[in-house]
Amino acid sequence: MAQKVTETMISQRGGKIVNIASLAGKVGGILVGAHYSASKARIIGLTKSLAKRMALYGVKSLV
Asked: Which residues, at least 6 apart from 33, have a Cβ–Cβ distance to it below 8 Å?
């Protein structure tokens, strides 16, 4: 979804992308399993990368 909206946000010189993850992505999760924790960690990493790349264009990424 972020790929679809970033071009518009760049041309508008602003916007916000909000991704929702789980605490398991930061600390791991015993009950939810490694696969779940890994997928949430990926969302957190993606959002941080987007925030750094898109900051030049006034786009904010939050997780």
From this structure: none
Break the chain into its structural domains and give their ranges.
2-62
**Distance of alpha carbon 17 from alpha carbon 2, whole angstroms:** 7
- pTM, rounded to two decimals: 0.79
Neighbour count for residue 37 (Cβ, 10 Å): 19
| pLDDT tens, N- to C-terminus, the chain (63 residues) | 888 898 999 999 999 999 999 999 989 888 899 999 999 999 999 999 999 999 999 998 887
For tokens 């993850």, the residue is 21
Give the chain's radius of gyration (CA, Å).
14
For residue 47, give both structure tokens: 């959002």
**CB 23: neighbour CB atoms within 10 A?**
10
